[in-house]
Design brief:
By secondary structure, the protein is of the alpha/beta class. The chain folds into two domains: about 5-55 and about 340-345, 5,6-Dimethylbenzimidazole Phosphoribosyltransferase, Chain: A, domain 1; about 60-335, Rossmann fold (3-Layer(aba) Sandwich), CATH 3.40.50.10210. The protein is built from 16 helices and six strands. It has helices at about 5-10, 15-25, 40-50, 85-95, 95-105, 120-125, 150-165, 185-195, 200, 210-225, 235-240, 245-260, 270-280, 295-305, 320-340, 345, and strands at about 60-65, 105-115, 130, 170-180, 265, 290. The termini are far apart.
């Protein structure tokens, strides 16, 4: 059995008995019925995911998967490809958005080189990043598959390996991404799985103008015509119109689900990875927590496909794991409500009259 097959085999649904136990406690808290709304829904989810009435979430970690994309040669991004390795150095130096927000919530940040088109070997040798390189960026998917099927499998299994090796030190996983041009494969993935027209699932990415947006739509439409990815085969979709970091994110999600640990899904690119994970193992969705709703219009459609309602909506579009870090505040709040708020009986408070 391959690492991917073994991981998928170990993913089982949330524990219904712990969900029921949590639900009974939450509906008996000293407040009007379900007065904290979706925070209580989240607490119930966490109990079911972790099989605990005291869900462990203290050790938080964001894994920012980095990779480059050959399709940038088509002019789909406002920024040059050199920005990807430059931003990796910024992450390592602690100067990026994800670093500030992760520090605020007490989460570690680990950058994983899945296939950056630049030499990051010195950072890997120094232990400052993890190297799981599949190659120096994907091929131009406007001309053929972004990667081979074997490379797609390796990317997903690399993400699984990252999760499994963090099992003893991480309670709460968060996904993140870095890769110039990666909203293009993400839009392609959402278009494949949703059946929506490309223009409806494509956004302005790093801030392209309307003319560049029209070009981006045409490029993605060409990618789909050239490659004809099969929506019933998640690995085929990843191989033909995906990215190495998107595969790594999918693997991280599958690994967290196999470990029975919650994984917070960041924005558009991370949700594209979540769609791949869901295609490979639908039950994995029970371990996903949608962090936020991105301004990328395809993100709303992707979240609907996963049956997820995001925790926050702050017009974010940065990626890196920033939304996941912010959402971890709400996850900690949900656990505190479950474990620290007294029930009517415990507090000896009179209940509402029936």
């Amino acid at each position: 059995m391959s690492p991917l097959e073994d991981t998928v085999h170990r993913i089982v649904p949330q524990d219904k008995s712990f969900r029921a136990q949590a639900h009974r406690r939450l509906e008996a808290l000293t407040m009007p019925y379900w007065a904290l709304g979706r925070l209580l829904d989240l607490a119930e989810d966490l109990a079911g995911i972790t099989r605990s009435m005291h869900p462990p979430i203290a050790r938080k970690a964001i894994f920012t998967m980095a990779g480059d994309h050959g399709v940038v040669a088509e002019g789909v991004s406002k920024f040059p490809q050199e920005v990807t390795p430059q931003m990796v150095y910024n992450f390592v130096a602690g100067g990026a958005g994800i670093n500030a927000l992760a520090r605020q919530v007490g989460a570690s940040v680990t950058v994983v080189d899945m296939g950056v088109a630049g030499d990051l070997s010195s950072l890997a040798a120094a232990g400052k990043i993890l190297s799981r390189r599949i190659g120096p960026g994907t091929k131009n998917m406007a001309e053929g598959p972004a990667m081979s099927r074997d490379e797609a499998v390796r990317a997903v299994e690399a993400g699984i390996d990252v999760a499994l090796k963090a099992a003893e030190t991480v309670d709460l996983f968060g996904t993140g991404d870095m890769g110039i041009g990666n909203t293009t494969p993400s839009s392609a993935i959402v278009a494949v799985f949703s059946g929506h027209p490309v223009a409806e699932v494509t956004g302005h990415g790093t801030g392209i103008d309307d003319e560049q947006f029209a070009l981006k739509v045409r490029v993605i439409e060409k990618c789909l015509r050239v490659n004809r990815p099969d929506p019933k085969d998640g690995m085929d979709v990843l191989a033909k119109v995906g990215g190495f970091e998107i595969g790594g994110i999918a693997g991280l999600i599958l690994g967290a689900a196999a470990l029975k640990k919650p994984v917070v899904i960041d924005g558009f690119i991370s949700t594209a990875g979540a769609l791949i994970a869901h295609a490979l193992c639908p039950t994995a969705a029970e371990y996903m927590i949608a962090a936020h709703r991105s301004v990328e219009q395809g993100h709303r459609i992707a979240l609907t496909l996963l049956g997820k309602q995001p925790l926050i909506d702050l017009d974010l579009r940065l990626g890196e794991g920033t939304g996941a870090a912010l959402a971890m505040n709400f996850i900690e709040a949900a656990v505190r409500v479950l474990t620290e708020v007294a029930t009517f009986d415990e507090a000896m408070v009179s209940k509402a009259s029936s």
